[in-house]
What we know:
There is one protein chain. By secondary structure, the protein is an alpha+beta fold. It has one domain: 2-Layer Sandwich (Alpha-Beta Plaits). It has helices spanning about 20-30, 65-70, 75-85, and strands at about 5-15, 40-45, 55-60, 85-95. Strands 2-3-1-4 form a 4-stranded antiparallel β-sheet.
Amino acid sequence: MSNESVILINLLKVNPGKQDALIALLKQNTETVIRMLHGWKTTRLIAAKDGASVVIYSEWETPEAVEAMRGDPRMKAYFPQIIELASLDSMVGSAVFSETR
């Protein structure tokens, strides 16, 4: 098995004035659900300075781990809470280039 992570990017377009509430919800879910799921490696939340969007960058061991997360009952209960605060677009991929200073 490869050590290369599967990367899940979620772009959330935040309803006006709701960025702080969304970030709090995402942090809570990461701490209480996501970090307990099989195959999860890391999550970063990136907030736009203008309050209009949040990016969730997460790494998983396999595409199956991502699908299992999406199908988890705790996550299914959580998604409607997100939709109250933001619209969601998602993609799964792998790193094809990285450079660090």
